[in-house]
Amino acid sequence: MPSLGLFMSQVFNGLALGVLLSLIAAGLTIIYGTLGVINFAHGALFVVGAYAGFSVFTFTGSFVLSIAGGALAAMLVGLVMERGLIKRFYHRPVEDQILVTFGISIVLVEVIRAIYGGIGQRVPVPSWGEGVVDMGFVVYPLYRIQILAIAAGALGLCWMVLYRTRLGLIIRSGIEDALMVRLLGINIQRAFLVVFGVGAAAAGFAGMIYAPIVSIVPDMGFRILIQSFVVVVLGGVGSFPGAILGGLIAGQILSLTSLVNPVYSDVMLFAAMALVLILRPQGLLGVEGRA
C-alpha cells in the first residue's frame, strides 16, 4: 500500500495534469463544436507554444513574457492555418478534415525539429515557483500548485468570454445551430476565426506552462492530443464544462493508475472512455445529438 504522502502527491499531480488537459481540450471541443472540424493539429499547436515560449525565455529571461509569447505564437499559427487552409474544409467530409489537419501537424512538428533539433530542451522553473510547500500530509513542489492556479485562471477567463460576452453567445449559438446564426445576419466566418484563434492560444498557453515540468521535444504533442480527444469524449463534444470535468477525471485516472502500474495508465484512460461511450454516448455533460 502506498503511503498517504505518496497517494496525496499523485492526487495533486493528477489535478495539475487535469487542469492542463482541460485547458487544451476546451479549445479543441469549442473548435469542433462550433466549426465541426476535427483538428488533429491541436497537439502541434501545444508544441508551438512550448517552443515559442522557450525562445522568448531564452532571449528575455522572463517567464511571464514567455507564457504570453507561447500563447501568441500558437494563436498566430492557428489563424494562418484557419484562413489559409482549414476554412476550405468546413463542409468537406470528416475524412478530409482529419487528413489535412494531421498533415499540418506533421509539417509543424518537422519545421520545429528542423529549427530546434530533436534534442529535448529545458525551461527552468521560474524563480517565483521554486521550492516546495509543506501541507502537513505531503510536501509538494510550489510550481505545480501554481500551475493549478494559472490554468484555473485561464479556464475562468475562457468561461467569462463564453458565458458573459456577446462573442460567447455567438459561439454557443453556433455550437447549437450554426445555420440559424447565419440567418440572423451574424458574420459567422469572423466568429469562426476568433474561435480557432482562441482555441490555438489555449493550446500554446498550456504548452508553455507545462514546459518546466517536462523536457520539450517536437513529438510531445501527439500523446497530449490523444489524451485531449479522450477528455472531449468523456466530457461531451462542444461542452466547455464537460472539458473541465473530463480533464480532471482523466488527470486522476492517469496519475493514480501510475501509482499502481504506470504501464496501464493509458489503458485505464481508454477503458473509462469506452465505458462512457457505452453508458452515455454524448459524454458526461454533452447534449445528445450534438456530435
Automatic annotation (TrEMBL):
<feature type="transmembrane region" description="Helical">
    <location>
        <begin position="98"/>
        <end position="119"/>
    </location>
</feature>
<dbReference type="InterPro" id="IPR001851">
    <property type="entry name" value="ABC_transp_permease"/>
</dbReference>
<feature type="transmembrane region" description="Helical">
    <location>
        <begin position="225"/>
        <end position="251"/>
    </location>
</feature>
<feature type="transmembrane region" description="Helical">
    <location>
        <begin position="263"/>
        <end position="280"/>
    </location>
</feature>
<feature type="transmembrane region" description="Helical">
    <location>
        <begin position="139"/>
        <end position="162"/>
    </location>
</feature>
<keyword id="KW-0472">Membrane</keyword>
<keyword id="KW-0029">Amino-acid transport</keyword>
<dbReference type="GO" id="GO:0005886">
    <property type="term" value="C:plasma membrane"/>
</dbReference>
<keyword id="KW-1133">Transmembrane helix</keyword>
<comment type="similarity">
    <text>Belongs to the binding-protein-dependent transport system permease family. LivHM subfamily.</text>
</comment>
<protein>
    <submittedName>
        <fullName>Amino acid/amide ABC transporter membrane protein 1, HAAT family</fullName>
    </submittedName>
</protein>
<feature type="transmembrane region" description="Helical">
    <location>
        <begin position="12"/>
        <end position="33"/>
    </location>
</feature>
<dbReference type="InterPro" id="IPR052157">
    <property type="entry name" value="BCAA_transport_permease"/>
</dbReference>
<dbReference type="GO" id="GO:0022857">
    <property type="term" value="F:transmembrane transporter activity"/>
</dbReference>
<feature type="transmembrane region" description="Helical">
    <location>
        <begin position="63"/>
        <end position="86"/>
    </location>
</feature>
<keyword id="KW-1003">Cell membrane</keyword>
<feature type="transmembrane region" description="Helical">
    <location>
        <begin position="191"/>
        <end position="213"/>
    </location>
</feature>
<dbReference type="Pfam" id="PF02653">
    <property type="entry name" value="BPD_transp_2"/>
</dbReference>
<keyword id="KW-0812">Transmembrane</keyword>
<feature type="transmembrane region" description="Helical">
    <location>
        <begin position="40"/>
        <end position="57"/>
    </location>
</feature>
<dbReference type="GO" id="GO:0006865">
    <property type="term" value="P:amino acid transport"/>
</dbReference>
<keyword id="KW-0813">Transport</keyword>
